[in-house]
Amino acid sequence: MNTDTGIIDRLRKEASRAIAIGWKDIRVYxxxxxxxxxxxxxPFALFFTFTVGRNLxxxxxxxxxxxxxxxxxxxxVGPVVIPLERRTKTFDRYLSAPMSLISVILGKSMAGVVxxxxxxxxxxxxxxxxxxxxxxxxxxxxxxxxxxCIAFAAMGIMFxxxxxxxxxxxxxxxxxxxxxxxxxxxxxxxxxxxPLLGQMVSLxxxxxHTLILIRLGLGLASYPISPVISVIALILTxxxxxxxxxxxxxxxxxxx
Length: 256
Hints:
This protein is mostly helical and 256 residues long.
């Protein structure tokens, strides 16, 4: 009984530390220029660049906007915050403090999740007020947004494990991954038009499953796979990113 109480108490303390770290990042870094540029301005610029002039209705454009917004916003906070904190030695103090590495990672990820959710509200409100957007399946739409925020926030933390105090040194390799994902995940090129091998590769991309769930949530036709598969894919992707991130940060910690 005492053992169970001790475990619960430890989990509660670790959770409170993670929340404190996440809340600090929210207050300090949300309005920083790199966060605003890569998390807000860049996805909207890409959206207008690749949708204007295409024969798409407003209804068909919104799933693309929602997916891009979540993708870029949630994955941007960690790669901005962690190198800045390495520069000021704040991140080193986290690692030397009496808290687990997983608490630090979860706290940093929480900031990315919240940022992705907050930014995704903007196009949602605009679509609802001015274009009478209808959400047909609220559960699928919410799962698409929320699980994607978790997956992409974990992805950002994973890339932030690169041992550098320069935001650019993290954003460059990360964008070498993020930008190709846009072209294999149905954002700009319909998955159905890809060759069979391309379609198989696209199903490995978490962004594909983001778009599938959001389209189904809005009552639009999507790639013919079960939404349950997309939900499971986003959960497994999140776990994979968290595990890889923890391993890389652990290696960096030992080197220091």
